[in-house]
Amino acid sequence: MVKTKIRIGFAGTPKIAFDHLSKLLSSDKLSVQFVLTQPNKTAGRGLSKTESLFSELDDTVPVFQFDDLSSNETKTKLASYKIDLLVVVAYGKIIPEWLLEHPKHGCLNVHFSLLPKYRGAAPMQRAIQAGETVSGISFMKLQRGLDEGPVYKKIEAEIKNKNFFEVESLLLNKSISTICSVIEQISEGAQALTQNHSEATYANKIKRDEGKISWEENYQTIANKFLAFRKWPQSFFLLNGEEVKVMELNVHSNEKGTPGEIQSFNKKSLNVFCGNGVISISEVKFPGKKVIGSLDFFNSKRDIISKGDLLI
Predict the structure, then answer these.
(1) Residue 2: is its pLDDT beyond 80?
(2) Cα–Cα distance, 226 to 51 (Å, whole number)
(3) What is the mean pLDDT of residues 252-281?
């Protein structure tokens, strides 16, 4: 007797979602009935539409890009699919009540933190920024409320001294290797455990100005932000009105001085006082230019950068 495949819907938008879907599509125990992803966004001066990663799947599985999940058109279309589970990975839209209740086993959300810590929009970045040494993945039953649903399974991972790209890759691989088995367990009646809401912390959406280095902060705080914001907005400072992105930094010494003041500038690095020592910057990127190392930086800017200057 052939066992019936688990029928799932999928909702996700960025590449990490696409990677999860690719895994689900390769499983011989699952049948993906449809995909929900956000509408294509406009980009560039010509405001051309950016193509969704999921568009290429149209011939394999129906892909929907609804603006409004609560419209009658959306309800009619999606309700025609009888699914066991809706899997959600960084979809970017709130799943309405009717859709939470439509699948036989509800909705499974993949959240990139160890809930109840770091609920919200930027869990990986905020965990790195806070200096956490361990983070992970939570497979959560999606309910009303911000990441408040009960959790089916957690996976821990060591993230000490890792930047955003490294943490994302690590957690993504752990999630992809586990998600199919979690879905199977849910279909077999696995129960999720209620979170301890008293221990909840929140990972607010990142704002661009958070990337600007505050020299008054201590080295570890600046370094954590550098690692956390490696993808966006990146760490930066202003030099003669230009925004200079910092591509590599380290601690130079614990010498004390005025925060933001240049301690030294040479072929090896630009060294700047912070709240508890000196930061060494060895790679930078100027607007519209390629990344340059310390030698090129020194050769091109030594006439306008001097010891004792203040950076903002």
Answers:
(1) no
(2) 30
(3) 96
- Reduce the DSSP state of residue 48 to 3 states and report it: strand
- pTM given for the model: 0.93
pLDDT in tens, 75-97: 999 999 999 999 999 999 999 99
The DSSP bridge partners found for residue 119 are 202
CA dist., res. 219 & res. 161, Å (int): 13
Tokens coding 61: 């599985």
In terms of CATH, what superfamily is 208-301?
Formyl transferase, C-terminal domain (3.10.25.10)
Type and span of the H or E element at 171: helix 164-176
Q: What CATH class has 6-203?
A: alpha beta
Residues of the chain with CATH 3.10.25.10: 208-301
Alpha-carbon distance of 40 to 87, in angstroms, equals: 21
**Secondary structure of 195-257 in the HEC alphabet?**
CCHHHCCEECCCCHHHHECCCCCCHHHHHHHHHHCCCCCCCEEEECCEEEEEEEEEEEECCCC
Q: CA of 148: how far to CAs of 123, 132, 143, 144, 204, in Å?
A: 14, 21, 7, 7, 15
User: Which helix (H) or strand (E) element contains residue 21?
Assistant: helix 15-25
Cβ proximity of 123 and 154 under 8 Å: no
Alpha-carbon distances, residue 227 vs 152, 205, 221 (angstroms): 30, 16, 10
Which residues contact residue 54 at a Cβ distance below 8 angstroms, ignoring those fewer than 6 apart? 18, 21, 35, 37, 63
Question: Is the pLDDT confidence value at 209 over 50?
Answer: yes
Question: In angstroms, what is the C-alpha Rg of the chain?
Answer: 23
49-to-43, 44, 184 alpha-carbon distances in Å = 6, 9, 37
